[in-house]
Design goal:
The protein is an all-alpha fold. It has one domain. The protein is built from four helices and no strands. The protein has helices at about 1-30, 40-60, 65-95, 100-129. Helix 1 (about 1-30) runs antiparallel to helix 4 (about 100-129) and helix 2 runs parallel beside helix 4 (about 100-129). The termini are close together.
Length: about 130
């Protein structure tokens, strides 16, 4: 399991760097499109939460499957609540940047969710062998 977590961490770091680079290039290529200046913080926030969620879920997969299902649902519920609060607080405090911040967060979240699901599927296959 340690190998899969390490591989996931590496993939997560690479994807985070690529998303940051693509966002930076996007702002250079399309200067008229307003991009949130907070995108590095979104990337760091999602990186930390995705890694923690994957690690906790992976630890629960070592035990029985019912524990995995419970852990996975609890983690996703907590992520939903924390992410919603994060977005609402930011939107309240920075009304001028709220739309671009929320859109950027959503696009990034899709990438992180896909990576997390593929990592969990890979871990499941590893544990079955």
């Amino acid at each position: 399991m340690k190998k899969i977590v390490s591989l996931f961490t590496l993939r997560l770091a690479i994807m985070t760097l690529l998303l940051g680079l693509f966002t930076f290039l996007f702002t250079l290529i399309f200067p008229h499109v307003r991009e949130t200046p907070s995108y590095p913080y979104i990337l760091a926030f999602l990186f930390l939460f995705s890694w923690a969620a994957f690690y906790l879920t992976a630890k629960s997969m070592e035990k029985k499957i019912s524990r995995f299902a419970n852990t996975y649902m609890i983690i996703n519920f907590l992520k939903l609540v924390i992410f919603s609060l994060f977005l609402l607080i930011y939107a309240y405090l920075n009304k001028a940047d709220a739309v671009s911040f929320i859109l950027t967060f959503f696009v990034y979240y899709l990438f992180y969710a896909v990576l997390e699901l593929t990592g969990l599927k890979q871990l499941n296959l590893f544990l079955k062998d």
